Amino acid sequence: MAAARAQFAERGYHGATVRGIAAAAGVNQAMISHYFGGKQQLFASIFELPTSVRDAVDEALDGGGEGVGERLTRAYLGIWESPSTRPAMVATFRSAVAGEQGMELMRQVLSHAFEEGTAPTPQRQALHLALGYLLGIAVMRYVTQLDPVATMDFEVLVAAVAGSIQAALDGVENCL
After folding, report:
1. Partners of 118 in the β-ladder
2. Cys-Cys crosslink for 106: which of 71, 77, 96, 111, Cβ 3.0 to 4.6 Å?
3. How many helices and strands in the chain, by DSSP H and E?
């Protein structure tokens, strides 16, 4: 599973192959098919993002109001910052932009994580806009590794971004 995470993170969903993953893991390709059924099932089984993302966002939003921008920024970027979840986040993003199958996996992650399907409200729209902004920052830092964002101290980054997130959430009365 570590080999699969690394291959998906490095190459994206379409670039990673079952053969390459098996070789990196030092196992027979048939073993992957036997235990996981195929590449899509392997991908889905190793990236359990929805629960961790939703939990982090929910915890950050608890209490609402003052400081929520900083809490949400720290929680969301912290998921990308963590060595235990960064490969999954990067792989999911790269897979999403690589093609429709990867995009569908990303939609499933986001819809589960942010409970899509409920009626859109101004509060939900504000939250999604804030999360979209955070995703852009995460892509610059962790996927494209574009300086100066990529090399910025994490605490400095959180402080620089949190005010904009707070403003986006404050822009809707009773957002939280």
Report:
1. 116
2. 96
3. 10, 0
